[in-house]
Structures are given as C-alpha cells and as structure tokens.
Design brief:
Blueprint lengths: L1 H20 L1 H23 L5 H15 L13 H18 L6 H25 L4 H26 L3 E3 L3 E5 H22 L4 H28 L15 H17 L4
Antiparallel strand pairs: 1-2
Helix pairs in contact: 1-2, 2-3, 2-5, 3-4, 3-5, 5-6, 5-9, 6-7, 6-8, 7-8, 8-9
Length: 261
C-alpha cells in the first residue's frame, strides 16, 4: 500500500503538471501512453510475436490520434484512407503466414488500435478545447474520486457483488459510493471555479462516475479473459498504462460522443 501511495502521488503530480503545461508536451505524453498501452494490449492478447501486424497496429493507432495532437500540423493524415490499407495488409499477411496469423489475430490488432487510439485521442482533444484545462482536470479528478469512493465505501459497506464474473471484488455499494464521490467532486470544483452550467456539470459528473466504472470493468473483463492480474508493470503498485487509464479511455470519448463538451 505504501508503494502504491508513493507511486500514485508522484505519478499523479507529474501527470497533472503536464496537463497544465498542455501543448506539445501533453500531446507527447498522451502519445507515449498510447504506444505503451497498445504494447500491453497486444502482449496480453498474445499477438506481439507477430511484429509486422503489431507495427501496422501502431501505425493505425497513431493515425487515429494524430489529428488531435498538438504537433499534427507537421503532417496531415486521413484516418479512413489509413484504415483500409492496414486492414488489407493484415489480411495479406495472414495468407503469407499460411493462416498461422489468422482472422482472430487481425480482429485483435484492429480492436486494440481503435480502443486505445480513440481513448487517448479524446484525452488530447479535450485539452485543446477553450476550457480544456479545467475540463480535463474536472474529469480526471472526478475519475480519481470515483476510484477512491468505490474502494473505501465498498470496503466498509460492500456486500452485494456488482459483477462477479468480471470483477469479483466490486460491489453495488462501492459503485454507488464511487458515483456519489464523482458527483461531489465535480460539482464542488465547478461551484468553486465555475466554467460550466449546473446541468452540464451534472452531466459531466454522471458520465465520469458511471463511465469511469464501466471503463474499469471493460479492462477487468479483458484481464480476466486472459487470466492476468495487471496489464503491465510500468507503475509499481498500480500496474500498467491500461490499468491506470482504462476509465479515462472510456469517459473522454463518451463526453464528446454525447455532445456534453
């Protein structure tokens, strides 16, 4: 627990600082996190041994993210034009490997690139909005509050399992505590510093509290399917990139998809 707290404080402070700085520095951080996250995904899925498909997955993922990064003006890329050649090359590679690399592997590469690419894309895109600094901090602090609220309320009062087939330790009481913590933190910070109307702040809080836990369950389901505890060992006591950013990778796209931001 001590190692977890120390790592969380140092990592969290550094992350918040780069969000504050924004621009190319934050974009570079998001890009590096996505690259490490995709490596964790293909290793978890058992397809990292196929170096060429993995490389194509990285290309597709970066292509998805590129327009939202601060340095995208250096080179413009069209995502629809990139998806098709990557897909066709993966199909061709499966033939050349005599179906040792098969259709399920192709699906995993594409899903990983889309899942991680779009998740981190909207993290970068949110910071670029006129009120992007405050919104990014609001969502991230709300997600951290959700995690803490779910953990402590679940530990103290949890009895009814939320979804034992996916995450045996999560409880309904913990989920309710996480949602309540997100609402308190998001609405409280918005009341202090302003920036959003009350209905918009409530919507952000609900998406953060519910979507954050859903994103965590998605990652838990992946790890349970592949019978692993953590996606990686990048952060001592916290696991890998996907373990730490699973909620953000879901919440940020949903906020944009619903037109809340």
């Amino acid at each position: 627990m001590k190692q977890r707290i120390i790592t969380g404080l140092i990592g969290g402070a550094g992350f918040l600082f780069l969000i504050y700085v924004g621009g190319a520095w934050y974009s570079l951080l998001v890009l590096l996190l996505a690259v490490m996250g995709f490596y964790e995904f293909i290793r978890m899925a058992g397809v990292q041994k196929y170096w060429l498909p993995g490389l194509l997955g990285y290309v597709l993922m970066v292509g998805i993210m590129w327009p939202s990064l601060a340095f995208s003006a250096w080179l413009t890329m069209s995502i629809p034009n990139l998806i098709l050649p990557v897909f066709l090359l993966l199909l061709t590679y499966s033939v050349l490997r005599k179906n040792q690399f098969h259709i399920e592997h192709i699906a995993l590469i594409l899903v990983g690139a889309l899942y991680i690419g779009y998740g981190f894309t909207y993290m970068a895109a949110t910071r670029s909005l006129p009120d992007g600094l405050f919104l990014s901090l609001l969502v991230i602090l709300g997600i951290w509050a959700t995690d803490s609220g779910a953990y402590f309320i679940g530990k103290a009062f949890g009895s009814k399992k939320l979804w034992p087939e996916i995450s045996p330790n999560k409880t309904v009481e913990g989920a309710a505590g996480g949602l309540a913590a997100a609402v308190i933190v998001v609405l409280g910070l918005n009341a202090i510093w302003g920036g959003f109307s009350l209905p918009q702040a409530i919507a952000i809080a609900l998406v953060t509290g519910i979507g954050g836990q859903l994103g965590d369950l998605i990652e838990s389901g992946l790890k349970r399917h592949y019978a692993i505890k953590d996606s990686g060992q990048l952060l001592p006591g916290h696991g890998g990139v996907l373990d730490r950013f699973d909620s953000m990778m879901f919440v940020f796209p949903v906020l944009h998809l619903l037109g809340i931001v």
